[in-house]
Design goal:
CATH architecture: Alpha-Beta Barrel
Low-confidence stretches: 1-20, 25-55
Strand content: 5-15%
Distance between the termini: 31 Å
Bound molecules: zinc ion
Number of domains: 1
Structural class: alpha/beta
Radius of gyration: 19 Å
């Protein structure tokens, strides 16, 4: 199937398409996804009507790593990430952590990794956004890095991985500073049958953190790994967003998330290049939900979360 997103005559960007065009495209994608998963989809749910306004609609991937793309420099890796994103109609990528992946990086390694992301952002500031990676075992170092890359730099969020469980109070100054600047905070979460890493957070850890920081813009990463349990765990913590990156495109995950949380709390991310854009987009494009719900998940929600900080930095939102 060939998808030509470059035929839009009113916009220079090959990945910004108008609503009707996008809906036609997602119809094709959803049919393809449905035929491969056995899911059925009513045509009426994916077809534009004449009354719908012609508004630009963009897909934002909230979770991309340079480490998963080939190349010896951040610029080369970013170029490849964007090239593949173009094929899938993804307008903007949010990237965090450089390479190699390190569970408990030293202050110097943290700076190196954030420098890699900063170099990538410079390569294409229109399409790439970045979160600062910190190791909360080093609180002072984390705050310094947050000031360097986010308060005084172009980054718009914070990435927390597996160094320390996020329920620990030592994270509080980091969350407070990020929240003061309206930054998004992405926390990797997982519930592993085989047992988590010592510092690896579960969704329950994140609920605890959210209770201490009700104003924080927190994302529960990877839908908690075991997604049904993750969903149930964060359901009552209404400030928590549910991000569905980084697992196989299990049928039903998106529908259930929309049903239990509402579409306004669900976020698309791919975890590319560890995962492909296509399989992760399939979770949403093949879901039996409305086009308005898909639009929120594919871009609307993360754009809303980032709105204030993008505005403060003079970045397009
Ligand atoms: Zn990831």
């Amino acid at each position: 199937m060939t998808i030509d997103l470059t035929s839009n005559t009113s916009n220079d960007s090959p990945v910004v398409c108008h609503r009707r065009q996008w809906l036609q495209w997602t119809t094709a994608m959803a049919v393809a996804a449905a035929s491969s998963t056995g899911h059925t989809q009513e045509p009426s749910q994916t077809q534009a009507t004449a009354s719908e306004p012609e508004q630009p609609l963009e897909i934002w991937d909230s979770h991309v790593h340079l480490s998963g793309f080939a190349g010896t420099t951040p610029e080369a890796r970013a170029e490849l990430a964007l090239q593949f994103a173009d094929r899938m109609g993804i307008a903007r990528l949010i990237t965090f952590m450089g390479w190699p992946f390190l569970y408990t990086p030293t202050p110097e390694q943290i700076r190196q990794q954030n420098d890699q992301v900063l170099a990538a952002l410079k390569f294409d500031p229109q399409r790439l956004l970045g979160y600062v990676y910190v190791n909360p075992q080093d609180v002072e170092g984390s705050l310094a890095e947050l000031r360097r890359c986010l308060v005084d730099g172009p980054m718009v969020g914070v990435k927390l991985w597996v160094a320390e469980r996020c329920s620990q109070t030592l994270l509080d100054p980091i969350i407070a500073l990020a929240t003061k600047h309206n930054a998004v905070i992405y926390q990797h979460t997982w519930i592993k049958t085989t047992g988590n890493l010592p510092g690896e957070s579960t969704p329950a850890d994140l609920v605890e953190l959210a209770r201490r920081h009700p104003q924080a813009r927190l994302i529960c990463g990877h839908s908690g790994g075991t997604w049904e349990l993750g969903l149930r765990t964060i359901q009552s913590a209404s400030s928590l967003m549910y991000e569905i990156a980084g697992a196989d495109p299990t049928a039903g995950i998106t529908e259930r998330a929309v049903q239990e949380l509402g579409a306004a709390r669900v976020i698309f991310g791919s975890d590319a290049g560890g995962r492909s854009y296509a399989t992760q987009l399939g979770k949403i494009l093949g879901a039996n939900i409305t086009e308005e719900e898909k639009a929120l998940i594919l871009g609307g929600n993360i754009r809303r979360m980032l709105g204030l900080i993008l505005q403060a930095k003079g970045l397009a939102s």
